[in-house]
Amino acid sequence: MDLFIAGFGVIGQGVVEVIQQKGEMLSKAFGQRLRVVGVCDSSSYETSKRGLDPSTLIRRKLSEGKVGTKPFDGDAERMLGSVDYDTLIEVTPTNIQNGEPGVANMLTALNRGKHVVTSNKGPLALRFKELSRAAEKNGVQLRFEATVGGATPIINLSRELLRGEKILSIRGILNGTCNFILNRMKEEGLPFAQALREAQDMGIAERDPSYDIDGVDSACKAAILANAIFHLDRTYSDVKRTGIRGVTEEAVSLASEEKKVIRLIGEISSKRLEVAPRLVPIGHPLSIGGTRNIVQIHTDLAGEITVAGRGAGKFETASAILSDLVALLKDNQK
Which residues are catalytic? Predict the structure, then answer.
């Protein structure tokens, strides 16, 4: 299977490293080799029908600040038409304003009959229906396990392994940064600002943390789950959203006295779509600390299914992308 990777930051580099590590195993298991024939970043791209060497790509990016030798002028049509490939791996940064350049990259690939595997939340949180219809119209797959929960398998579990179930609701912690901050406030009695600074110093929170602490990241994931699992037509703006900026030391202390903790919880069902701080009893699965994500899937037959794991990271996200690539490889065997 020939791949074009759009985006070569931390996640894109993680993807080529994982492909390099797992290539032999996948070749033996499926009789197909994963081969990178194209790659781009914001300013350059590189293609080769014979395949590109992952080590060379990473070395060039680290030494020169760009992955390719050809300048990229933003014309996705021209760039993605410069080499033949089977699957686009779209891992450009999330843009919640208009979803670009991810939307253009994905639509270009889908309309040319190419599969798309992505970790980019922006396009799916804004234009899920359009992208899904483009995939269906062109007889290809749009796979996006990596957009929600990183290494916490929620989407493929719900849509494939639980296909016989009726999923009633999904409830969980969808952002590890907020969880870390709220846990530090509870465990150490830290004020919000101090816990945030600690998260930033540790590299858990960005210098501009608004995407996490204002609930934007969680709301994007909630919208994606609403569309993917409950077949709704929702966008990020349809999510009722409250972040954690307003959580005080006093509120955390009062919750503790009642043997509860405060957690930022996403609630998704056919009737509810909300992200907000909630009181959770200590000892409940959703009272988990640290940076992990955890989701409870409520079904009609199996009851409650809980899935927990790392929600972000280079190899965690790459593992979710790999799971989607494996699904495509298995389909190719049919």
Answer: 221
